[in-house]
Amino acid sequence: MKEYSIYELNQRQQYMMLMRPILHKHALFADGTKDYRNPPEPKENEEVTLTFRSAKNNVDIVWLRSDKGKIPMEKKETKGAFDYYQIKVQLGTEPYRYYFEIATGMLHCYYDRMGVSPEIRQDYAFTIVPGFSIPDWAKGAVMYQILVDRFYNGDPSNDVLTNEYYYIKVYSQQVEDWEKCPAEFGVGEFYGGDLAGVMQKLDYLQDLGVEVLYFNPLFVSPSNHKYDIQDYDYIDPHYGKIVVDEGELLNPGSTDNTEATRYIKRVSDRRNLEASNELFAQLVEEAHKRGMRVILDGVFNHCGSFNKWLDRELIYEKELGYATGAYISADSPYRDFFQFHDENRWPYNGSYDGWWGHDTLPKLNYEGSEDLYEYILDIGRKWVSPPFNADGWRLDVAADLGHSVEFNHQFWRDFRNAVREANPEAIVLAEHYGDPVEWLRGDQWDTVMNYDAFMEPLTWFLTGMEKHSDGYRQDMLGNFQNFEGAMNYYMTRFMTSSLQCAMNELSNHDHSRFLTRTNHKVGRVDSLGSAAAGEDINKGVLKEAVVVQMTWPGAPTIYYGDEAGAVGFTDPDNRRTYPWGKEDQELLAFHRDIIRIHKRYEAFRTGSLKFLGGDYQVLCYSRFNRLQQFVIVVNNDYVQRDMVWRVWSAGMERKTRLERIMFTTPESYSLEPEFYEVSNGRLHISLPPNSAVILKNIGIE
């Protein structure tokens, strides 16, 4: 046997290292979609096939690692530039957590939900919860949020009247000018939008491409936003139908709502209430005929001081068929629905808990009342069952419900079970700021309004603005590293099915309109004035955002009017009326077309996501499955950018052809095809300022 000198051994080792293939880390891939987990939502005790992808002939072995050990996977398929490894796993009833280990030569690495890592990261393991599933209709569904009072007035006979009642130091006011901007404190301003108006605009919504209507609260309430529920059992007749309209308005100077007999009749007479519920049932039926679903807003942490259980305003005290409110008497059947701190103040005891100290928002005392607990579970069942047949609930300030975290989790377990038993196709999604992972374990919420893994990172990247327009940070504008890191991390807090139906919004009723954020004006309407919200806006940046919204995992959710160019600072300015007859027609057409693109391709609903690269003010990523591959490129810069991106790792050949199916600029957009050649896996592309493009892999014939 030949002996080698130290020099020769070193030379030989270097030669062997050079001859070994380089590990193509960007080709390593797995996630929870159906191409890599089949079935993607396995039942208890079901067998599931897990798949892992690598570059062709690039790795020596792939192991599946879980708490049950380390098992080698089998190379099952080679297709194009990739090898696919598979293994079958028998599930039980408990969550199953796993990740992958990859070896080539002496090199080992791991793959989890955050991607490739040199070390094991248990916190980012893939998780399967056997039996957990999301209705298919919700995955990638195009949602449309409606604050009813500001959408369309279809029935003037049910309009709230000026001086109809008194609430939070203001009289109700009927706004005659639809185009008037909301007052700085406008809780009593009513523009007359109603369910009849929504029904009259269903053709518009269907033509836009909407698949789900999400309504801000519809139940009886004295405010225009209705997050202070008066009666959970009935739709507010001011949104529904008023068939019995008797009584008097308040006299000037009177603040005694016992004298508001017109209001009392409107909201307490069963004929009005039943007619309004019937109208809602008709609306849902009409929506369903058009293939649309309906989601209700559930405000269950607190109610309102007008609520019939409390009756601080004495609305129900003299009305037949209503039990005495807890504010009025300690003998009220609703006494335990609220937590009172002074047992010696009845009658008219105002010492109840208010949410964040607001006496107009009494906090509901679930721990103190089994009757309340069951009542709200029944409400959850009622509205998703015949004859109403709503398709789910959005839960307001859901993490605040109850007086302890443990109780909160138990309530939402019971609520989800109640809703799913009543309607297996209904979903439960929650408003939540911060990490939602403790509620997204398959037994409580299905998903959330996606602030952390969508609205906030995208807003910072494209505008540098805080979502209320309360601040501007130059260091966040165009900061790709921050965007990628935030998106990657916060998406790991969702299971795949929950991510696929997360409510991805650019604007909503609590934050400034996205189009206003593009002007970089810091402040609110009280300091800047309403006109400033529409000054120096950049429609190109809005279109970039919508391109991302319609191609990102989740349910793209349009806040009414955004598609027509609506502007506004944060609440209440963001609640301006829909600009009927004054829509930005170019933006409207753009939304119609990009929604059609989103709905046309399954990869945008349930496909995989992979970042392909980024730099200051530019972003490139892919949505793909085994049959469809798309590349999305965004240039948020104010100059033209020439870019080269490695795109083959999105599941396509190293030599292929991409077709442009959407191109946006500040001035316009185009659906005209243009073709790009991919050579050696790389795409060369040049984009003008504030533009975005969607490219579809069409291969080479």
Topology:
Blueprint: H1 6-19, E1 37-38, E2 47-55, E3 61-66, E4 69-72, E5 74-79, E6 82-90, E7 96-104, E8 107-112, E9 115-117, E10 126-128, E11 143-146, E12 166-167, E13 170-171, E14 173-174, E15 189-190, H2 195-200, H3 202-208, E16 212-215, E17 219-220, E18 231-235, H4 261-268, H5 270-289, E19 293-298, H6 370-382, E20 392-395, H7 405-422, E21 427-430, E22 447-448, H8 451-463, H9 480-491, H10 496-500, E23 503-505, H11 514-517, H12 525-528, H13 539-551, E24 555-559, H14 585-600, H15 602-606, E25 608-615, E26 618-624, E27 629-635, E28 641-646, E29 656-664, E30 669-670, E31 675-679, E32 682-687, E33 691-697
Parallel strand pairs: 11-16, 11-24, 14-15, 16-19, 19-20, 20-21, 21-22, 23-24
Antiparallel strand pairs: 1-2, 2-6, 3-4, 3-7, 5-6, 7-8, 7-10, 8-9, 12-13, 17-18, 25-26, 26-27, 27-33, 28-32, 29-30, 29-31, 29-33, 31-32
Helix pairs in contact: 6-7, 8-9, 8-13, 13-14
General description of the model:
- The chain has 701 residues and is an alpha+beta fold.
- The chain folds into four domains: 6-132, Immunoglobulins (Immunoglobulin-like, Sandwich), CATH 2.60.40; 140-306 and 352-599, Glycosidases (TIM Barrel, Alpha-Beta Barrel); 307-351, no CATH class; 607-697, Immunoglobulin-like (Sandwich), CATH 2.60.40.
- Strand 3 and strand 4 form a beta hairpin.
- The longest helix has 20 residues, at 270-289.
- It is built from 15 helices and 33 strands.
- The strands form seven sheets. Strands 25, 26, 27, 28, 29, 30, 31, 32 and 33 form a nine-stranded antiparallel β-sheet that branches.
- Residues 12-20 have low confidence and may be disordered.
